[in-house]
Amino acid sequence: MKGVGDRINAVLEARRAQVPVVEREISQWESVLRLLDDLGATLREFDSAEEGKDAASAIAGLDVAALSARAAGALGALAAVRAKVGRRTVNIGVSGRARNGKSTLLQSLSGLSDEQIPTGRGQPVTAVRSRIHHSVTRADAQLTMHSEQSFCDEVLAPYHTVLGFSSPPRTLDEFAAHRYPNEDGTQNDAQGEGLRGHPRFGPVLARLGEMRESLDTFRGHLTGGTRGADLGELRGWVAYPPAGGASGGPPDRRYLAVRDVVINCAFPIEDVVALGLVDLPGLGELVPNAEEHHLAGLENEVDFVLMVKRPTDTGALWSVEDAQAQELIRRAGGAVADRDFMAIVVNTGGCEQVNIDALNADIDKRLNEGVPGRFHHVINVDAADRADVRDRVLTTVLDHLATALPRMDAASVGRALDTSAAARRDVLASVEDALAGLRSVMTPTATEELIARAEALRLEAAESLQAWVDVLRERAGEGYEDQEFHARVKEVADDVRAWILDGFGEGEDAWTRRALGQMRLHKSGASFAEGALNGIRVEVSRRFSAIDDLLLRRRERFWTELIDALGPRLGRLVEDEDPQRALRGLAERLREAPDPCPVLAESLDLVLDVRLDYRTRVLPKVRRALEVLLPQSRGDAAELAAMLTVPRTPEGAAELFVAVSQLARQAAYDAGKVLAGEPNVSAAALHAYGEQFEDSVIRSGASEAEFRRIAGAFRDQLWDEHPSGAATARVQRVRGALTRLRQTLRDAAATTHGGAGK
Questions:
Q1: Does the reported pTM lie above 0.85?
Q2: Which of 119, 163, 165, 298 could crosslink 103 through cysteines, CB 3.0-4.6 Å?
Q3: What gap in Å lies between CA 61 and CA 517, rounded to an integer?
Q4: Which letter, b or e, does each residue of 187-226 get, where b requires 16 or more Cβ atoms within 10 Å of its Cβ?
Q5: Where are the alpha helices (DSSP H) in 122-253?
């Protein structure tokens, strides 16, 4: 075998030169998958809206999930090839059903013993599969440990899935407390009835029970980290325990904490060869998903497979199970010929010659069409004879690989690149079809969309404002009765009248006593009468100002209704609950917009300047009605003279009270009449303000342009629920996503063709 190491190392160096090509393809497909994810998210924005139906119909045949699966398939094939050509070792996998001598063959190939690769009769002994590397400088093992989470996910969950249990334990505490069917003689799971006696499920259920029984022996090792181990102590980490614990306790099952084992040791070979052995998961063992794990190991870790078969009295022929295992190997080999990728090792150790001959004859008949070695190498060897294994197995395989690996790699890489190219063509064709479909969909441009939105916004505002102005006009009409206003006027007038009748707030007796005192003091009633009239005039005017609260409420109602009248969409720009602040804020936003809207802002300023308060609108009229209480304005001199010349006696003071009270009641009556007419006047004023506002907003020369500015500046706030124009935006996003995907696929195809031609 001397000299084959240089040839193997040269092959490894050559295969690594293909890594950049494969990685470039992988990078391109990763980009494609990201773009497909983006495309899928964009397509999900399409809904049943009428505006998007044409576009949705145009791309109805675009199955993004199927394209993603196609891309993932290509990526998976490339990843498997990258793992192969990127390795720095030639890996030989050893496969076979339990108790056929697989572990014995591994010992002979690697030079290890039962302490590292346990063997035995009866039940399987090796519990953890190992990867063994040839090294002349190291003799140790590296253990990768499960974490609690990975143990639950990767060990416990598959068992529960096989048994049909819906909720596997998520923690070790849940596992410890879990009760399985028929424990303690009771049935606590309807799904599990009869499981313990089932030929397939019963042993699986028993294995779960063994794990739980020995939980304390491996729980502390579930660190999720790595740890070194001497080769002499490795058995306790990788072997099933003997029946019974060391001192009657539960068996030590610390192997359950081990996720992976890498062993470094010197193989019994002379050349320095970058060689690795992979102990593939055993077939036929009571481990869920063993076949899937077996195939994954074949695809990702090995360059060549030794399939071990031991001819016994009950297994001297090529069985259905052997054919199934061979098919797994064939699938993993892919484009590589079976003869290049695998050999059958007939383990003759301790077997009768008649059984050995029978198995060889059956293999030739079933697999080689009667010609020995035609399609499959068959190596007869005693797996326990290390020298014979070295010479007849290891030397033969390495010599074969030194010659065959280049063509095997070329076949694998070629198949992966062909798969990639075919997938790229399929995905690109679907993308091209989708883009062609979208080209048939008529969608407006961004400018057209802006104009359409602005027109719709202006029409909506016009309809709403006109309906509001109609309400204002109705309130200002002659036949409209503002019952609330009239009731408030009557309430205020009654308050003034009661104040007068109550002796102007101090009682008739007190008023007349005070009047008599002043008349005697000044020897005249003139001074007191004029002062009384002046005071009454001021107080009546003040008391009628109580109507101010209703006038201010009328103005606030006007502003609130105006906000509603802006329409459901334009009203979204209002940001305050107080109507006055809200309108003032809207005017400011329109002024400060990227493209200002000064006319619409000034229209808001107009309605914010509405004056309905008592002092502005009512007080001047009330003052005129109260002029009857101005002594100098009295036209009836005789009446005034009579009032001023009353005798300075109690009777005269009482006579003066009657006269002043009559004048006060007359003035209050006249002021009440003024207020009674105010609802129509105020309503007419509000109607005028509203009509002017509506006219300015909708029909001014700047209205059309400023509504376009609003539509552009506040688009996201006004149309966040995706109105008609959102269909256009969605189509554009889909078109953009498809275009980016197409360009990426085209660039990848061009790069691949360019690289192939160089």
A1: no
A2: 119
A3: 107
A4: eebeebeebbeeeebeebbeebeebbebbebbbebbeeee
A5: 148-151, 157-163, 172-177, 201-213, 215-218, 235-238
